[in-house]
Every structure is written in C-alpha cells, then in structure tokens.
Amino acid sequence: KAGMGEWLDGLQSVTFHNKLGSQADRIARIAALARHIAPLVGADADVAHKAASITKADLRSAMVGEFPELQGLMGMYYAREAGLPEAVAKAARDHYSPLGPTDTVPADPVSVAVALADKIDTLTGFWWFDEKPTGSKDPFALRRAALGVIRLILQNNARLALNALVMKAFSRLFQQLQVSAIQAKREELDDLASLPADLADEAILREEGRAIPDDEEREPNLGRYETHALAKTQDLLSFFHDRLKVFLKDQGLRHDLIDACLAMPGNDDLTLLVNRAQALAAFLKTEDGPNLLAGFKRANAILTQAEAKDGVEYSYGADIKFAETDIERALFAALDRAEAAITPAVKAEDFVAAMSAMATLRAPIDAFLDATQINTDNPILRRNRLNLLHRIRAICSGVADLTKVEG
Length: 407
Description:
The protein is an all-alpha fold. The chain is built from 18 helices and two strands. The chain is 66% helix and 1% strand.
C-alpha cells in the first residue's frame, strides 16, 4: 500500500560491500548499465532502466526479510501490484538467473539486459579491487557470475562487445567512487565546509590528484585511469575466456580449437567466438580437415624454420612468373580462388563457407609440397616459394589460428 519508495530509500543504508558502497549505489550502476545494454539485446532502454531500479527493492520487504529465498520472486509480485509493466516484473524475478550451469536462462529482452548488467557490475566491482577468485576460494561467486554472463549471451544469441561493456561498467564505478570520496572528504575537512560545493569538490580533487578540472591537466589523469581500466578489462576478459573454455569443454568442444579462435580479432564477442569454434570443429571432422591441417602445419614449419634461420619475414608476396611447374602454378590459382571466397565469407561471419573454401586447398598444397623443393639453391626461387608458403599461412589463418590446433 505504501509503494516501494520507502524500501528503495532504505537500501541507501544497506552496505553491499565496504569498498563498493551501498545497495542503492549498486542499483544506480546496474540501472545505468542496463540502459546501455538494452538496445543491444532488443529491449527498451527506459523499461530496462526502470526494471533495474526496482528489482532489488524487495530486499527491504518483511517477506524477503523472513524468507530470503523468495527474493526476486516477491519482487515480481510487488512490481505487478505497483502497476509496472510485465517486463519489469519478470526482470525482478529473473535478474539473478542463471544461478548455475543447469538453471533456466532468461529470454525476455528486459530480463536479459538487467541480468547481464547485474552480473557485469558484480564482476567489475570486485575486479577493480582485486577481490578475484583464488584456487578453490570464490567468496563472491564470481565464477558463477561469469558463467551466467556467458550463458545469457550464448543462449540469447546476443552480439555484445564485452570489452566495451566492461569499460563502461568500470567508468561508472570510478565516477561513483570519486563522488563518494568527495562527500566523505568534505565531511572531514573543516576548512572546506564554508566553500561552495563546486569549489570544495575542485579543491578535494586537486588535493587527491584523481581528477583535475583544468583542461590542460585533466588529460594525463584520464590517461592514468584508462590505462588502469584497460588492464583490468583485459584481465577480466581472460577470466571470461577461461570460464568459456570450461563451459564449452562440457559440450565437447576442445580447448585447442577455442584457443585457435581466441587468437582472432573480435574475441570479446562470445557469440562470434563460439560460432567460429563450432565451424572449425565441424571442419576438422571432415576428411579434408585433418589433411589440410597437416599440410598447413608442414608449410608453416618450413616457413618458420627458414625465417628463423634467415632472420627475415617472407611476407612480401609471391610472384607467379617465378613458378617453374604446373603444380606450382596450380597452387597460385587455388590460393587466388580460395582467398576470393574466404575473405567475404569471414567478413559475413559465414565460417562454414570459409572453411569449405579453405578445404579446396588441401590437394594443391599437398601436391606442391610433395613435388617441390622449397629450399632450392636458386635464391630467387627459394624466396618466391617461401613467400608462397607465407600466403598459405595467411589465407588459412584468416579463419582461425591453425598453429594452435593440436594434431
């Protein structure tokens, strides 16, 4: 009858974590991030923001106080009673999900946006203060949160750049921490008590060296923050990748195939990454797959050894006019055809088509390596053939880093 306002106000006095502020602080971060994520998963930004703002209100209710296991579920009922949209009510119920590897994954776009925001905020908050899992210890259930993010993305086929989302979350946290520090400092410093708020803030910021209003001095400070946040982001992305390997291994996808795809651009887009890995796994189950891989590794070994011996990189383009045999000329033609098919297929993220085009190289590569002496005494022919091997490596590596594939 009283509405949820009193509950939300009460969350300001509930500490989420001594370094990360109150539950109200956390809700503000989650709501801002949910608004940003919403259009990326097909949700309305205003509805997602509203949902994130009230999803934890039930934590202050007497019902959840008595029965904590009802948190989220009661939030749904309260949201309905408050006349809020059904999408908001569902988000209140589902934003904790998935809680484990077999838990149901939310599919409603608003629920997905809020659940992702909730988990990413948890991860970035504890990562910022180096409260990471160690060994078997994971007091804040960060492995579970990372797996939740992975399952939300993959099972909803969401296309998200995790790096950008994590940086956004770090930025929001950093701003909030600055504001909290300013407020605490103002209460401590008597000599600032009589200053207007904006001047007090500037004095505190200058004293602590965290942010300088002067334009000429602000950029170096921003650079220090960005350097720190980028390092944290890369570390957290590696954690996501480790959790993804465990998740995919349980589904029968080998670690080396995932590593081969992690080495490619866009590896923070987990849907793209998994699509690429699955296409590679399917390709290696065909007859051409293992044979082409063997030919690629053979060519790469010869090239790598020559580059190490000569101290140069043979990547300046092979010229067909130096081809001596029909087999050599056939390889040039096959590489031209394959590259013409692979490049647009990879751009269109059609990895099955790219792998099929790559399969056509199996026979001409085998024939060339069997019939041709690469390290011939003729330096011009040798250099041209090594450059040709580099082209094989470059074209095949446009799909995945095959050097990381075992066998």
